Inverse folding.
């Protein structure tokens, strides 16, 4: 299947790998996790309903910001920039490229899907099934290098989600209020921020690109802080992915009336 | 006989540790075509394992430091048996050699003002060791390796061939030096990989083969340390001096058995680690010898204060020279106050915060965690003495590194004299650089001075050398591993850290037996990468050298530095000016006495007369300034 | 405490070879290298293996144990169960010489292709001034013991022999990063990283980091930052314009 074992002079070992541990588990879990998210995300994106809870001002993160003329009344906090383009062009599609692009070009997710989806390699010291390999040197994968632009774009997105969370402190009588939904959104937005800040491009921009930290004490400090988060980038990637999905699910269930929000205050 | 691979070089350096690489760099920079030969891969020589640092009186941390102080410390550490000229050159040139490394790309730990940071070490009066965490040897060897690569890149630019002027022959063992008349003509060896033979024709050979520790059972040394350079020089007619002095490092791992002997760096103590016996007592305070009484703290409080305020306090006795500490640990264990596995406790966990330990001693943390399941930030280590370094070696001219054989040079651990009877920590890495460079320079100068045709290696010499190397395949006796294990046991038990005349006589008898048996060694398999065969060849060297050690040790009827005799426990000033010299003759190994060259007056004057009085017989001090100009 | 363990050790050379079965004694606290040595001393005196320090410092004893690239001297027997069969094979990416010994010259070639440290012009030896915070990143990379396990594991060359030509491998891309981050290095190495040394081949799947016995964060601290620097230069028009007006920081 691969060219490797036959390469001249190498030890003649036929097995694709001699690993005896469950090396396939990690890619399998990654694959499953990402697939669940993709399927859920697709369904939700085209559902075009159940994303706004008017009495508590909950906006599902998949629909935020809601920029289309078809958005439910009250859910467009930042205006309605786009006209109604028919049922196939749902509001999430305007924002999705940015959000998705950020995750798709993220250094961690790249690792995750190169391993779990493209099997390149499926796990360390396990041969990959491709005859040729050129890494990220050619189109399309060379485009991964523009990740930093998605990082720039991710900041307004995170700001929007922050605003969504702020206004979700809304009670049914119109004043201040807190519900389980609010708390979930707070957790979610914190994780989104943590993930965004922990980005490798962010680490680079904050200070990583400098050669002399000692001449830029503030940026060095920033770099150190970002580095701390960066060390947990994988965990944050998963945590924020799960939290975004669950937050969306929760809001959609409340909006669709399947459950009612657990109110803590007003 | 099939065609034998031949090479022709101006200078052949045997050994790719710090000394060999520095020598090669120098020879190449002097315009000589240079070969570097090593038994293992390029960059893996023993130097890579050095941990603590490089001693050089740069005065970056304490500006009171200078070459004179370093010189004094070195002489004291060696109990004044050192070759003073070497100690002088070493102290003077070490800083330049370290600074030079920075121009090759080395990255030492820094002081606040951006200079090279220096740390405390046993026997050094001021913080003096340039270091990178506890992996200084790695930094040193990698830097020199990369410097060689950069020279090769230069050659590539100029000639299109990376190896035009400096080439590394890795995994090649030299088994014989070849002479034409009294001069060096070349070297003979085999590729470990293929077992094929190689001849180097060269007028100048620099030996930088390191030490001999593999003759001992408990050792911090690797398989490479079989005393090859010592033996090659001996057989070529050079002399070995000071072979009785072997440094047992006080702190080697003692548990688990498979790692017994692996080094625990002295920086653990330099950075605050303390030694305790099984009763929890810091026993080193009991063992401060008279000659050091004024220099070391007598109470734990004072010792502890010294770490933060070295100017107003004396250092803790854990930082006494290695021989003292090793002997003290030995006594504690013998007195029944040892740990369950026969060592003593070395503890930093109660002395420094966990984070600090991990930062300053990362590889120790790693080593104990991975090899012994001990977390040194939370619990003490168990340590005991381990054979570490040989002070003895090839007798050379201090300035050029040339031995008694024209064209044969030596530097680094395989040369002798510099460290006297005991080496201070950190003084080896600087020794490698200072004398590596000098040997390279010396060899280049020697090559320049030659007139007429170069000495030749004859066919007869080559076929004799091949026959010798292949002998083990003809043998019908034991396998080399058995004999090696027995040799290690003999040296460890009978010529170890504490010696007696009776035991050493027994050792000599046993060595003789082992030598007989070794003549019939049998190895299996064929020549291609055959460790059994390799060991069989190395074993001969170990046996030669072990005999030198044992004979010299028997001869020296006193205790000094790395030579401790139970039957002659005191240091004898009469022996200070006498060196023991080991040579070969037809009868075998021969040890004779030789007078030490008297210390130059201005160097003598660097010490107070009172102090010298403890080491010298009074006539020797007549040149001292205190004797007045009268 | 000792027990008998089943070992499968690959023996052979570049022409032929296979796994050989051994039953061998194991004692408390031992590492795989001890067992290999015991095999040499008792059952297979010509079994070839490289080692030096036996303490994880020299990077000689690299091999694959149960399919995982590791140092023989730092793999403790206690990480296996007593009834487990332990398979020891040579590194797969390099040509085998004999038994567990491989020809790692690929790595020495790559080392030569990385331009060396370029000393700052006009600074004399002894006058080098660098701050600890500025050397720390490169110091992490200089912990490398050149065991070449990362080079062996990296799928770019492990699975594609033909890439060896154009790809320096993680160890030497890290060397580029080390020099690039060196506070006094006078050379610019960013474009060469991508063009000459094949940084773009790396798909940051982190196997190098996973196997590094020195626990160097090769991918996070060397390769990705290097990719970002390349992006500054080659893929980021904004920075390209800005950098026209600035010198190396
Ligand atoms: C664990 C440990 C820690 C240490 N820590 C320190 C420290 O902190 N500070 C300090 O100053 N010193 C320290 N030392 C001592 C110091 O590291 C050594 O003395 C020094 O590295 C020796 O260097 P060298 O260049 O003489 O030889 P090595 O570095 O040992 O090199 C010997 C070379 O010779 C080659 N060779 C040998 N025989 C042959 C042959 N027959 N044919 C071809 N090649 C051959 C070998 O392959 C090798 O390349 C330490 C030693 C050890 C073991
Ligand atoms: S991260 Fe890059 S260099 Fe490291 S193993 Fe993966 S592909 Fe190779
Ligand atoms: S980076 Fe790590 S894995 Fe790679 S060669 Fe260096 S020490 Fe080995
Ligand atoms: S978001 Fe993962 S690296 Fe930028
Ligand atoms: S023997 Fe040195 S790293 Fe294993």
């Amino acid at each position: 299947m691969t060219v490797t074992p036959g390469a001249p002079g190498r030890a003649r070992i036929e097995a694709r790998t001699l690993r005896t541990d469950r090396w396939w588990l990690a890619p399998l879990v990654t694959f499953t996790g990402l697939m669940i998210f993709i399927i859920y995300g697709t369904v939700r994106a085209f559902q075009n309903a159940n994303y706004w809870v008017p009495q508590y001002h909950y906006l599902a993160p998949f629909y935020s910001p809601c920029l289309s003329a078809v958005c439910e009344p009250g859910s467009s906090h930042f205006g309605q920039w786009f006209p109604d383009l028919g049922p196939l062009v749902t509001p999430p599609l305007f924002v999705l490229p940015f959000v998705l692009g950020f995750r798709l070009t993220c250094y961690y997710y790249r690792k995750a899907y190169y391993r779990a989806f493209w099997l390149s390699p499926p796990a360390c010291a396990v041969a990959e099934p491709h005859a040729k390999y050129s890494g990220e040197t050619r189109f399309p994968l060379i485009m991964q290098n523009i990740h930093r632009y998605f990082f720039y774009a991710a900041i307004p997105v995170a700001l929007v989600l922050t605003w969504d969370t702020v206004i979700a402190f809304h009670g049914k009588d119109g004043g201040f209020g807190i519900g389980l939904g609010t708390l979930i959104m707070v957790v979610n937005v914190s994780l989104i921020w943590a993930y965004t800040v922990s980005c490798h491009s962010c680490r680079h921009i904050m200070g990583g690109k400098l050669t002399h930290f000692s001449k830029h004490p503030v940026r060095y400090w920033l770099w150190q802080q970002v580095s701390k988060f960066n060390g947990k980038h994988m965990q944050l990637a998963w945590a924020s992915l799960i939290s975004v999905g669950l937050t969306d699910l929760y809001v959609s269930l409340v909006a669709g009336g399947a459950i009612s929000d657990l109110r803590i205050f007003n | 006989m099939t065609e034998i691979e031949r090479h022709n070089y101006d200078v052949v350096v045997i050994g790719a540790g710090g000394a060999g690489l520095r020598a090669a760099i120098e020879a190449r920079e002097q315009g000589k075509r240079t070969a570097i030969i090593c038994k293992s891969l390029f960059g893996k020589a023993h130097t890579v394992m050095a941990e603590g640092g490089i001693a050089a009186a740069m005065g970056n941390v304490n500006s009171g430091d200078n070459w004179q102080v370093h010189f004094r410390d070195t002489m004291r550490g060696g109990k004044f048996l050192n070759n003073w000229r070497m100690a002088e050159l070493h102290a003077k040139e070490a800083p330049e050699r370290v600074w030079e490394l920075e121009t090759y790309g080395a990255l030492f730990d820094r002081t606040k003002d951006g200079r090279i940071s220096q740390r405390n070490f046993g026997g050094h009066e001021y913080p003096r060791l340039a270091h990178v965490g506890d992996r200084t040897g790695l930094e040193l060897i990698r830097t020199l390796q990369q410097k060689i690569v950069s020279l090769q890149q230069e050659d590539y630019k100029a000639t299109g061939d990376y190896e035009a002027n400096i080439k590394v022959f890795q995994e090649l063992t030299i088994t014989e030096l070849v002479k034409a008349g009294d001069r060096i003509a070349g070297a003979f060896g085999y590729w470990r990989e293929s077992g094929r033979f190689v001849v180097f024709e060269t007028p100048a050979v620099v030996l930088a083969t390191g030490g001999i520790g593999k003759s001992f059972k408990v050792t911090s040394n690797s398989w490479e340390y079989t005393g090859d350079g010592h033996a090659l020089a001996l057989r070529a007619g050079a002399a070995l001096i000071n072979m009785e002095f072997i440094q047992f490092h006080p702190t080697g791992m003692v548990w688990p058995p498979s790692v017994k002997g692996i080094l625990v760096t002295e920086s653990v103590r330099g950075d605050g680690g303390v030694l305790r016996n099984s009763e929890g007592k810091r026993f080193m305070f009991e063992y401060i010898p008279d000659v050091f009484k004024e220099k070391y703290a007598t109470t734990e409080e004072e010792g502890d204060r010294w770490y933060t305020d070295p100017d107003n306090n004396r250092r803790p006795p854990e930082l006494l020279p290695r021989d003292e500490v090793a002997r003290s640990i030995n006594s504690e264990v013998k007195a029944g106050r040892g740990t369950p596995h026969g060592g003593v406790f070395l503890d930093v966990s109660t002395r420094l915060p966990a984070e600090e330990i991990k930062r300053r001693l990362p590889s120790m943390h790693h080593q104990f965690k991975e090899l012994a399941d001990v977390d040194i930030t939370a619990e003490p280590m168990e340590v005991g003495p381990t054979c570490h370094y040989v002070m003895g070696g090839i007798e050379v001219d201090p300035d050029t590194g040339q031995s008694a054989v024209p064209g044969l040079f030596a530097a680094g651990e395989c040369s002798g004299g510099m460290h006297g009877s005991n080496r201070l920590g950190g003084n080896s890495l600087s020794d490698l650089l200072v004398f590596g460079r000098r040997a390279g320079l010396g060899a280049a100068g020697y090559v320049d001075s030659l007139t007429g045709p170069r000495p030749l290696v004859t066919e007869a010499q080559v076929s004799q050398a091949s026959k010798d190397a292949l002998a083990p395949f003809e043998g019908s006796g034991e396998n080399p591993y058995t004999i090696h294990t027995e040799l290690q046991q003999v040296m460890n038990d009978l010529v170890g850290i504490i010696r007696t005349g009776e035991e050493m006589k027994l050792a000599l008898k046993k060595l003789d037996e082992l030598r007989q048996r070794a003549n019939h060694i049998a190895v299996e398999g064929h020549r291609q990468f055959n460790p059994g065969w390799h060991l069989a060849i190395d074993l001969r060297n170990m046996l030669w050298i072990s005999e030198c050690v044992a004979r010299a040790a028997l001869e020296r009827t006193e205790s000094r530095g790395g030579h401790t005799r139970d039957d002659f426990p005191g240091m004898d000033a009469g022996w200070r000016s006498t060196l023991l010299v080991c040579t070969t003759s037809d009868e075998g190994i021969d040890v004779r006495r030789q007078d030490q060259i008297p210390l130059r007056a201005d160097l003598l004057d660097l010490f107070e007369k009172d102090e010298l009085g403890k080491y010298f017989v009074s006539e020797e001090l007549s040149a001292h300034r205190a004797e007045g100009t009268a | 405490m000792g027990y008998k363990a089943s070992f499968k050790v690959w023996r052979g050379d570049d022409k032929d070879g296979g796994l050989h079965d051994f039953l061998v004694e194991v004692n408390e606290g031992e590492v795989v290298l001890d067992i290999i040595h015991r095999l040499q001393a008792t059952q297979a005196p010509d079994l070839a293996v490289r080692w030096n320090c036996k303490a994880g410092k020299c990077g000689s004893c690299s091999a694959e144990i149960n399919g995982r690239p590791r140092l023989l001297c730092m793999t403790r027997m206690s990480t296996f169960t007593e009834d487990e069969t332990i398979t020891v094979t040579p590194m797969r990416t390099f040509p085998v010489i004999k038994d567990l010994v491989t020809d790692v010259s690929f790595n020495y070639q790559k080392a030569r292709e990385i331009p060396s440290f370029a000393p700052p012009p006009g600074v004399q030896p002894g006058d080098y001034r660098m701050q600890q915070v500025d050397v720390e990143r490169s110091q992490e990379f200089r912990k490398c013991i050149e065991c070449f396990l990362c080079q062996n594991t990296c799928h770019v060359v492990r699975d594609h022999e033909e890439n060896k030509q154009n790809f320096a491998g993680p160890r030497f891309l890290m060397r580029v990063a080390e020099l690039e981050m060196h506070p006094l290095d006078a050379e610019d190495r960013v474009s060469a990283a991508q063009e000459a040394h094949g940084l773009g081949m790396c798909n940051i799947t982190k196997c190098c980091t996973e196997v590094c016995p020195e626990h160097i964060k090769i991918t996070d601290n060397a390769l990705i930052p290097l990719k970002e620097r390349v992006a500054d230069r080659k893929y980021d028009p904004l920075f390209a314009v800005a950098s026209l007006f600035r010198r190396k920081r």
Q: What stands out?
A: Chain C touches chain A through 63 residues (CB under 8 Å). The beta strands of chain C are 3-12, 17-26, 62-65, 68-71, 85-89, 96-98, 101-102. The radius of gyration of chain C is 21 Å. DSSP finds ten helices and seven strands in chain C.
